[in-house]
Structure formats: C-alpha cells, structure tokens
C-alpha cells in the first residue's frame, strides 16, 4: 500500500511527503522528479518540470506523466503527484490503484497563489493575467481532487507536523 498526496502547487505535498515518510519509515517518490529524470534520459537535457512543460506543451507532458504513473510498482511509498496529474481520468485510475489518495486543500487561495509564484509565474498560468489564470486553475482542479480523494485535509494555517498528524490519524496504516 502507498499514500498519494494531491493538491494545488504550493499546498505542501513535498514537505508533507518527506515528513510522513520519515515518521512511518517509508520511501518518498515525487512524480515531478520522475518526469524530470525521464525527460533528461530521453532528451539529454536537464530541465525542471516548469521548463519541460513550457518546451514540450501540456499534451506531451501529460503523456510522459501518464507513462510514469502506469509503470510504478512500489509499496510503502509516500507519492507526491503533480498538481495537474489528476486532470487525466487514466491517471486517476493509476493513482487509485497505487493506494489511498489524500487531498491537501489550502482554503486561503491568495496565500496559496503567493506561495506558488514566489519563484516566478509558472508556465501553465497566463503570464499577462496570472492571478485570474490561477483562479481558473483552482476552479478546474479542485472538483477533480474532491471527487478522487479518499481523504481531504484543509492544511490552511497548519504547520507541516500538524498536517502529518492529521493524515496519520486519518489512515489505517503507517509505521
């Protein structure tokens, strides 16, 4: 069994995943890092997910992500999936086959926007009007997360250790 974390970019998936894995004695796996690794192997270029997305476009990026998800054969992993992974119904099926899906929800969208853009506006947001584009992204993705998730946790205002405690209290396995 695995635990999969989903949520909008900046919701704390990576930090939470690392802390959960440490607490439970499990391994971590970030699908974004797997995309970067697979892309580098294929192209010889070492790029971030944002750079890959911008270079090859959403369709090819999602195909690469789907191949990675469908090829995963792991147990006792905390898997942090990219923010748009669940947009593809095939990815939802692949993720659900891996384990329990936990949605890390940030109800304070302005704070989340500032957090996710502190290193620059991501390629998938409209550069001319990024906040409006972000709100559109939220409106598209949140219903998907809500429907797919086995567990939903509002992480707004919580410290990472508190999020870990909430997840640990919500699942039947660990350590």
Please explain how this structure is put together.
This protein is of the alpha/beta class and 175 residues long. The protein has a single domain, classed as P-loop containing nucleotide triphosphate hydrolases (Rossmann fold, 3-Layer(aba) Sandwich). It has helices at residues 13-24, 31-43, 49-71, 89-98, 109-116, 130-148, 160-170, and strands at residues 2-6, 27-30, 77-80, 99-105, 151-154. Helix 1 packs across helix 7 and helix 2 crosses helix 3. The longest helix is centred in the middle third of the chain and has 23 residues, at 49-71.
Structural descriptors:
Rossmann fold, 55% helix, alpha/beta, 175 residues, 5-stranded parallel sheet, 7 helices
Topology of helices and strands:
Layout: E1 2-6, H1 13-24, E2 27-30, H2 31-43, H3 49-71, E3 77-80, H4 89-98, E4 99-105, H5 109-116, H6 130-148, E5 151-154, H7 160-170
Helix pairs in contact: 1-7, 2-3, 3-4
- What is the topology, as strand order, of the major beta sheet? 2-3-1-4-5
**Residue ranges: pLDDT <50 for 5 or more in a row?**
none
Main sheet specs:
5 strands, parallel
Tertiary shape: globular
Average per-residue pLDDT, rounded, comes to 92
State the gist of this model.
The chain has 175 residues and is α/β, with parallel strands linked by helices. It has seven helices and five strands. The chain has a five-stranded parallel sheet, sandwiched between helices.
């Amino acid at each position: 069994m695995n635990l999969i974390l989903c949520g909008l970019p900046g919701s704390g998936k990576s930090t939470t995943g690392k802390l959960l894995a440490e607490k439970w004695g499990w391994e971590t796996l970030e699908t974004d890092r797997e995309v970067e690794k697979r892309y580098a192997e294929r192209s010889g270029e070492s790029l971030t997910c944002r750079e890959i997305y911008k270079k090859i476009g959403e369709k090819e990026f999602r195909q690469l992500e789907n191949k990675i998800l469908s090829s995963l054969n792991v147990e006792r992993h905390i898997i942090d999936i990219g923010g748009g992974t669940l947009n593809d119904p095939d990815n939802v099926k692949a993720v659900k086959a891996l384990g329990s899906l936990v949605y890390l929800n940030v109800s304070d969208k302005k704070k989340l926007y500032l957090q996710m853009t502190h290193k620059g506006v991501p390629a998938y947001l409209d550069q001319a009007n990024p906040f409006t584009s972000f709100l559109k992204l939220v409106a598209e993705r949140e219903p998907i997360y809500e429907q797919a998730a086995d567990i939903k946790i509002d992480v707004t205002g919580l410290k990472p250790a508190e999020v870990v405690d909430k997840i640990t209290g919500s699942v039947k396995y660990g350590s």
